[in-house]
């Protein structure tokens, strides 16, 4: 395990210098702060892994700083170790109850300093791994199938995972572009760091949640700073606003971003993977999408084939989905007869991979015994009728953005009611990563425990 970024907050210069020397020799990237204000700036801009925090300082005490970190969710990504030469057992208990990882008394022991830092980094790594395990990631990282198209796609993913250049993943809705981006991340050197997701259409509404902001009352760090070293995936790139395109250009060309209300560049190291259904070239010609962004992304495009282009893989995909639903959702196994598989292979799959997944899930939930060709035909016809009915009920008196927000609010509220307010389960069922779901619920003003 490699040493991480470390912040030392202490008003005593000799202690700061000594600790900086010790940890630098151990390979840590060390930052120092002499007071609370300096500490706030560093943790908001640099997202340290470990923070050694002195309790007694002239401008603000360490407990108050710890509480500020909690309010800004710093402890989701960092371990705080309190230090004091005048501490009491009550202070130590208060600090650990608030969320501090450990408490050290001065004079500091060199051996204990290093051991505590090492254990804190191990704790932090385990915390990150547990968070990754809880995310909705496919068991099968690479695309499933024996066809030439899918074999070539797997080879491309493995090859691109070795590098850090931006990638543009193209494909129809439901083809699995998101899974391709996840696979590139999971096979890369960045796999232990955050896979951060932004939906193009949501950037403007969630800008301050993602980037943070500078106001007269202080700084909100935002979520992106904690994802440095990881991968940024932007889905539906064609829906990214001008403001969002400018943010992406800063990130891509400068390796930095600027928070709303500030003119200061915040450096981040992120691999960028953008997903699109297409149409960017026409948008660029009509000055709706930045030409320089498109040219940079098009250096390494990756095309994901539609399911109708490789229907010979459907038997393998059926087996994969059966295994997934049996293992993860406890559904009962059903055999697909030859006629059923042939009907599935002859179907055009306008919804691609996602449509097949949803169909198999419904078949397992609603039926039993062998799956026949007649049952497949009825299920496909029923799905088509449901889609026709839902389309006829659309309110066209509102603009597209309002219609989208109404549908998302109704859909997520219904899912939350069905899951009893369980956000993790709602994220799994909706296919929305949990962090993104929290942002979306906040933007739509939905209380998970009391969805209207």
Automatic annotation (TrEMBL):
A Gene Ontology molecular function term of the record: ATP binding
Response regulatory domain segment(s): 5-121
GO biological process, one term: regulation of DNA-templated transcription
Leader sequence residues: none
Span of domain Sigma-54 factor interaction: 143-365
Cited CDD domains: AAA, REC_NtrX-like
Listed Pfam families: AAA_lid_14, HTH_8, Response_reg, Sigma54_activat
Top-rank lineage group of the source organism: Bacteria
Record flagged with keyword NAD: no
Modified residues (4-aspartylphosphate): 54
Keywords (A to Z) from UniProt: ATP-binding, Nucleotide-binding, Phosphoprotein, Transcription, Transcription regulation, Two-component regulatory system
Protein name (Swiss-Prot/TrEMBL): Response regulator
Organism field: Hydrogenovibrio thermophilus
């Amino acid at each position: 395990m490699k040493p991480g970024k470390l912040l030392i907050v202490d008003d005593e210069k000799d202690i700061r210098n000594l600790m900086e020397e010790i940890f630098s020799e151990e390979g840590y990237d060390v930052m120092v702060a002499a007071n609370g204000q300096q500490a706030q700036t560093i943790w908001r801009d640099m997202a340290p892994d470990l923070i050694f925090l002195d309790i007694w300082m002239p401008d603000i005490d360490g407990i108050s700083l710890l509480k500020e970190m909690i309010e800004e969710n710093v402890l989701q990504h960092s371990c705080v170790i309190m230090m004091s030469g005048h501490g009491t057992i009550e202070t130590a208990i208060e600090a650990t109850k608030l969320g501090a990882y450990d408490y050290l008394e001065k004079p500091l022991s060199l051996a204990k300093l290093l051991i505590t830092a090492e254990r804190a980094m191990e704790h932090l790594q385990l915390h990150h791994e547990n968070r990754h395990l809880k995310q909705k990631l496919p068991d099968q990282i690479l695309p499933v199938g024996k066809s030439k198209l899918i074999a070539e796609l797997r080879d491309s993913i493995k090859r691109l995972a070795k590098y850090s250049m931006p990638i543009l993943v193209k494909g129809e809705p439901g083809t699995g572009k998101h899974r391709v981006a996840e696979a590139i991340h999971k096979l890369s050197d960045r796999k232990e760091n955050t896979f951060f997701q932004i939906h193009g259409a949501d950037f403007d509404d969630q800008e301050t949640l993602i980037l943070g902001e500078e106001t007269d009352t202080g700084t909100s760090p935002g979520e992106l700073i904690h994802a440095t070293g990881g991968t940024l995936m932007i889905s539906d790139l064609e829906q990214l606003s001008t403001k969002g395109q400018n943010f992406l250009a800063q990130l891509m060309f400068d390796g930095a971003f600027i928070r709303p209300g500030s003119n200061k560049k915040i450096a981040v190291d992120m691999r960028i993977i953008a997903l699109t259904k297409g149409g960017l070239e026409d948008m660029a010609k009509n000055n709706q999408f930045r030409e320089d962004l498109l040219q940079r992304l098009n250096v390494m495009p990756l095309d994901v084939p539609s399911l109708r282009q490789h229907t010979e893989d459907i038997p393998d995909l059926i087996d994969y989905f059966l295994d997934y639903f049996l293992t993860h959702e406890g559904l009962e196994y059903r055999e697909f007869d030859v006629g059923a598989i042939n009907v599935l292979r002859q179907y055009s799959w306008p919804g691609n991979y996602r449509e097949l997944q949803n169909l198999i899930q419904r078949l397992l939930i609603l039926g039993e015994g062998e799956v026949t060709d007649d049952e497949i035909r009825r299920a496909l016809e029923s799905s088509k009728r449901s889609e026709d009915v839902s389309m006829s009920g659309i309110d066209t008196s509102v603009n597209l953005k309002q219609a989208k927000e109404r549908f998302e609010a109704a859909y997520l509220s219904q899912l939350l009611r069905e899951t009893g307010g369980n956000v993790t389960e709602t994220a799994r069922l909706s296919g929305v990563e949990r962090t993104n779901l929290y942002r979306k619920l906040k933007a739509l003003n939905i209380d998970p425990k009391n969805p209207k």
